[in-house]
Write a structure and sequence with these properties.
This protein has 327 residues and is an alpha/beta fold. The chain has 2 domains: 130 residues, ornithine cyclodeaminase, domain 1, CATH 3.30.1780.10; 183 residues, 3-Layer(aba) Sandwich (Rossmann fold), CATH 3.40.50.720. It contains 9 helices and 15 strands. Strands 9-8-7-10-11-14-12-13 form an 8-stranded parallel β-sheet. Helix 2 crosses helix 3 and helix 3 packs across helix 9. The longest helix is centred in the middle third of the chain and has 20 residues. The radius of gyration is 19 Å and the shape is globular. The protein starts with a strand and ends with a strand. The structure holds nicotinamide-adenine-dinucleotide (NAD). The site of nicotinamide-adenine-dinucleotide has 29 residues, from helix 3 and helix 4.
Length: 327
Amino acid sequence: MQNIKILTSEEIKDLVSMKEAIDVMKLAFSDLSMGKYRMPVRTVTDFGNGAISLFFKPSFLPQEERIGIKLLSQTRNKPSQGSPAIQGIMVLIDSATNSIIGLLDGSYLTALRTGAASGIATRLLSRSESSVLALFGAGAQGYTQFEAVCCERDIRKAYIYDTSSEAADRFIAFFKAKTDVELLHGADLSSLREADIICTATNSGKPLFQTDMLKKGVHINAIGSYKPQMHELPDDLFSVASLYVDHKDSCFSESGDIITPLEKGIFNHDNYKGEIGELISSRITGRISSDQITVFKSVGVAVQDLAMASFAYRKACDAGIGQDIKL
Ligand SMILES: NC(=O)c1ccc[n+]([C@@H]2O[C@H](COP(=O)([O-])OP(=O)(O)OC[C@H]3O[C@@H](n4cnc5c(N)ncnc54)[C@H](O)[C@@H]3O)[C@@H](O)[C@H]2O)c1
């Protein structure tokens, strides 16, 4: 029986930089859109009237003989002990030998690959001179959204919006010590007029802003809404904004940000441009004018986890990092 390598969140943090993670996501999305992965739409099961959601996310990359299964549990409200709202584990399997070869912390792996997905979208879709960011949601995903956008653009100022002032304070204190970006509390939505890039990483049930508050040419990474009743974006946004997604079937069947405008008949189908993987492989066009509003909507797909876990596992093997066990 092969050894199983266990990788903790701290080990993954040390092994994989955000820059590397963004490049891993670039390849994963391109492979996904070219049909190289086998991936069923994930299973999400709610318990306790939605207080806890369980995610089961398998995928298979035949050319690398790798299977990944991510198991997550997510609480609607953050547990009071301060542990992350998303807890999980990633199982990595060698399909050639049908052996489990890796068990990775799923919490940070998720935040890393979700940030990296917004990073590649920011690289491809935001205006290159973008310097002001507005971030909604200073939770686990917010941190990696911020890191990824700062990797791709020279961000000078960031407005941090969170309904919890403690979360926003914690976020600002954390990054003040690490970056020279001017970090400000998003006191009111008028600051959105300045934002070149907006990231939304909340569990909100209501849109976070209105379309007429946006600056021309803004790029939005919207990662929070993964259920029909969850909304971060205004319903009329896709009457003016160009939409790119991580995975069409998943986004159109899961996210309220897309389902609600479709149901209301106010989704302009001409504004749906395609999957980010199609953009990466130049099968569709990206931004065509500096005034265009672009949106990257992601619900998160299993191939992101498999690609990220395989990369971290390979680096860990090369560096001799992680605990090797036999079950
Ligand atoms: N697309 C993906 O791949 C992906 C991956 C992981 C998580 N998510 C989703 O992203 C969202 C955030 O996840 P997380 O792990 O950071 O959760 P979290 O609980 O750690 O953080 C969410 C933050 O959003 C804040 N918030 C809630 N409503 C708000 C509002 N109206 N305005 C401003 N702030 C608000 C909360 O106070 C909290 O600080 C969740 O809905 C989660 O399911 C998506």
